[in-house]
Design goal:
Oligomer: single chain
Strand content: 5-15%
InterPro entries: L-rhamnose_isomerase (IPR050337), Rhamnose_iso-rel (IPR013457), Rhamnose_isomerase (IPR009308), Xyl_isomerase-like_sf (IPR036237)
Mean pLDDT: 96
Protein name: L-rhamnose isomerase
GO molecular function, one term: isomerase activity
Largest sheet: 8 strands, parallel, barrel
Keywords: Cytoplasm, Isomerase, Manganese, Metal-binding, Rhamnose metabolism
Radius of gyration: 21 Å
Number of strands: 12
Number of helices: 14
Length: 388
């Protein structure tokens, strides 16, 4: 039987990357909401992310989004982040906001548009050289809205050709991570709609190309933990984008809609060797905080992942394996449920205190006065948000 003490002993391996854009203004498809204290620069985003790590010990790196986080000197930005106590992580490309990409980017039938999109990714690789980032993450909005609009097979061929050129530019320690999404903004077909397409494209590229799984990018009812298992089994799971969904790509706080799903996913991550700093699997948040305050939203998110990881580590794997071998369906299910329903929050509070962290990071943030300070300091200028 795994004990809470055993589970807590492994929690020090947990690291969750936070996205710079989570600290900017966001909203629904209809409205982007402004809030007091919102960062105006990437430096202010990093300061907010550093506060999350200071209070939780769980978020040592920050993902960048280009061009939203462009600066003149990325080496200086790396040094600035280090002074705050965080590192610069994944670099995310953007080929979905320029008018030229209306009919596709890496898959476009227009050679000039493809050239522009490929060059953007090569620029991202140059940024990664300066920041020390390992992963280039690519999510494409490419697809079509109507049958016959474009040649679907031709688009796959063009995607492969574009990715090959980007892949050839990777440094020795760098990786390409290809994300998928089953619909939106393309509604008839999406060029990278599922894990199989991403797997096929990355497999053809080579050993430095992996799949990114966004937990909000699947059709309702999809068994996401099965996909996690399969990609780990195939050695192609590179990273997660953690969020939560009720209907589509809602980008809500991870674990908000279905904490049991998050628990099941983390079980497969641990079971498949994807947990820990040497696993090669990056855990990252990809969320937008529309109604809630942004920094507490990120704190709650990393704590949710930590709690479900602790519960997953409680599964009595020996007893589970025996129940599975003997065909005892209800016993096996009960072993899962026993771990999931264990309240680990008091033990986690003690664990945090033993590491010099606040027992309740949410309360600690509220008492810190940080939000009041940035509300007063960050007046004027252009707040960061979608597209900025």
């Amino acid at each position: 039987m795994n004990t809470i003490e055993t589970a807590l002993g492994r929690l020090g391996e947990l690291a969750i990357e936070v996205p710079s854009w989570a600290y900017g203004n966001s909203g629904t498809r209809f409205k982007v909401f402004g809030t007091p204290g919102t960062p105006r620069t990437v430096h202010e985003k990093l300061a907010d992310a550093a506060k999350v790590h200071e209070l939780t010990g769980l978020a040592p790196t920050v993902a960048l989004h280009i061009p939203w986080d462009k600066v003149d000197d990325y080496a200086a930005l790396k040094e600035y982040a280090a002074d705050l106590g965080v590192g610069l992580g994944t670099v995310n490309s953007n080929t979905f906001q320029d008018d030229e990409y209306k009919f596709g980017s890496l898959t476009s039938s227009n050679p000039a548009v493809r050239r522009r999109a490929v060059d953007h990714h090569l620029e991202c690789l140059e940024i990664m050289h300066a920041t020390g980032s390992r992963d280039l993450k690519i999510w494409l909005a490419d697809g079509t809205n109507y049958p016959g609009q474009d040649d679907m097979r031709g688009r796959q061929d063009r995607l492969a050709e574009s990715l090959q050129e980007i892949y050839a530019g990777l440094g020795e320690e760098q990786r390409l991570v290809l994300e998928y999404k089953f619909f939106e903004p393309a509604f008839y077909h999406t060029d990278v709609p599922d894990w199989g397409t991403s797997y096929a494209q990355t497999l053809a590229l080579g050993e430095k190309a992996f799949v990114c799984l966004d937990t909000g990018h699947h059709a309702p009812g999809t068994n996401i933990e099965f996909i996690v298992m399969q990609l780990l089994r195939l050695g192609k799971l590179g990273s997660f984008d953690f969020n939560s969904r009720f209907y589509a790509d809602d980008d809500l706080i991870v674990g908000a809609a279905d904490p049991f799903q998050l628990f099941r996913i983390m079980h497969e991550v641990i079971r498949g060797g994807g947990f820990g700093k040497d696993s090669g699997v990056a855990l990252m948040l990809d969320q937008c905080h529309n109604l809630e305050e942004k920094i507490p939203g990120q704190i709650r998110s990393v704590l949710n992942v930590q709690e479900m990881t602790a519960r997953a580590l409680l599964i009595d794997t020996d007893a589970l394996a025996e129940a599975q071998r003997s065909g005892d369906v209800l016993a096996a299910n009960s072993i899962f449920n026993d771990a999931f329903y264990t309240d680990v929050r008091p033990a986690l509070a003690q664990w945090r205190e033993s590491r010099g962290l606040p027992a309740d990071p949410m309360a600690a943030f509220k008492a810190s006065g940080y939000q009041k300070k940035i509300n007063e300091d960050r007046v004027g200028g252009q707040q960061a948000g979608w597209g900025a």
